UniProtKB/TrEMBL annotation:
Biological processes, Gene Ontology terms: trehalose biosynthetic process
Protein name, entry field: Trehalose 6-phosphate phosphatase
Record has Hydrolase as a keyword: yes
UniProt organism field: Hibiscus trionum
Primary enzyme class: hydrolase
């Protein structure tokens, strides 16, 4: 049953004008926030336009963003004079000063746990690059047995959700834990608890049941885009099939084009093909992930909004006694970090072994440090509970 007493996150302002400065449709700018109204029947026709010029992807910054989307990882060693890690080649000043700005969540654990005392922690976890290491084949991005057990333990003590760019079904298949909440497609597909809170009355929120038959809320704010995404996915597959190493994924509410396995000389080609297709879809926009171009609906919804939605569903929003923690490695996780920073609400933890601009408060180097941090949270909670039972 669909409900309609909230405003829809689908933006309705049509954006059809050209961006004069860059010479491209403004709807093609990454992170562009406005939407476009859809001419009727438009998204059922596969666009067959003349390909654009390579200058398109050069001038609008796509290529630059692609090059910086996943910088090569550096080999790290311990530096004897500093209690932080440093680059092996010559001691990397940039990395050290970055670590001062984004201290290790492990080394700052006392500070974090002090602040968490008497508070209810909620844990939000990104999947790729956070729970599983980045690998060449997205279908083989498995999490380790020990990571799965760490996440399972965390979920015993704290409400825990996975917020991924992948489809919800796919990320559930990879994580395989029934005790968590899952938000797929960058938060555009949330299976959360039934709470009778305001979030239940959101448009596009329906009552459903999960794999175990438990009653859940299913929130899909970009439902109307499913046929369009499917159509674009098929076009992308067709138009990139001659590019060696290209891989396109359909996440139902968004679609991804991977260029990790392409020779760098072919990056402009794949970027231009995606650009040409997107020209015909003013209601879709592009965002950049780690060696992946992500095509998603122009709606006012992202991982940050998904976190807010889940907190509300869990009855944990607008409370001083709640400390949400979000761990993620990607640009799309920045939306969640931003929510925490702006509201001074919780801790964003960026997973990165290289300096990166971020709205997070802390950092962890890689998934193995994420696992240590999750285990530390559980150990701390167990001790807290023991102390309480003794009192
Ligand atoms: O939000 P996430 O859970 O981090 O998902 C973001 C994207 O993750 C996957 O791609 C990334 O990981 C792959 C496996 O390690 C890697 O090959 C790829 O280069 C990375 O971009 C996933 O395949 C994408 O669809 C997600 O959007």
């Amino acid at each position: 049953m669909e409900k309609s007493n909230h405003s829809s996150p689908v933006l309705t302002d049509p954006i059809t004008v050209n961006n004069s400065r860059l010479g491209i449709h403004s709807n093609l700018l990454s992170y562009q926030q406005s939407g476009g109204s859809l001419p009727s029947g438009k998204y059922m026709t596969i666009p067959r336009k003349k390909p654009g010029k390579l200058e398109d992807v050069l001038s609008n910054g796509w290529l630059e963003a692609m090059r910086s989307s996943s910088p090569p990882r550096k080999k790290l060693i311990k530096h004897k004079d500093f209690n932080i890690d440093a680059a092996a080649d010559d001691f990397d000043i940039a990395y050290c000063s970055w670590m001062i700005k984004f201290p290790s969540a492990l080394k700052s654990f006392d500070q974090i746990s002090k602040n968490a005392k008497n508070k209810k922690i909620a844990v939000f976890l990104d999947y790729d690059g956070t729970l599983s290491p980045i690998v060449d084949d997205p279908d083989r991005a498995f999490m380790s047995v020990s990571m799965r057990s760490a996440v399972r333990d965390v979920a015993k003590y704290f409400p825990t959700a996975i917020i991924s760019g992948r489809s919800r079904d796919k990320v559930y298949e990879l994580v395989g834990l029934t005790e968590l909440y899952y938000a797929g497609s960058h938060g555009m597909d949330i299976m959360g608890p039934v709470s009778h809170a305001d979030s239940d009355d959101h448009p596009n929120c329906i009552r459903s049941t999960d794999q175990q038959g438990k009653e859940v809320n299913l929130f899909q704010p970009a439902k109307e885009f499913i046929p369009m995404i499917d159509e674009v996915f098929k076009t992308l597959v067709e138009n990139t099939k001659d590019i060696k190493g290209a891989k396109v994924e359909n996440h139902k509410f968004c679609t991804s084009v991977h260029y990790r396995n392409l020779e760098e000389k072919n990056w402009p080609i794949i970027a231009q093909r995606v650009h040409d297709i997107l020209k015909d879809y003013p209601r879709l926009r592009l965002t950049h992930g780690r060696k992946v171009l992500e095509i998603r609906p122009v709606i006012d919804w992202n991982k940050g909004k998904a976190v807010e939605f889940l907190l509300e569903s869990l009855g944990l929003s607008d409370r001083d006694d709640v400390l949400p923690i979000y761990i993620g490695d990607d640009r799309t996780d920045e939306d969640a970090f931003k929510v925490f920073r702006e509201s001074n609400l919780g801790y964003g933890i960026l997973v990165s072994s290289v300096p990166k601009e971020s709205k997070a408060f802390f950092s962890l180097k890689d998934p193995s440090e994420v696992e240590k941090f999750l285990k530390a949270l559980v150990t701390w909670k167990q001790l807290e509970e023991k102390l309480h039972t003794k009192i």
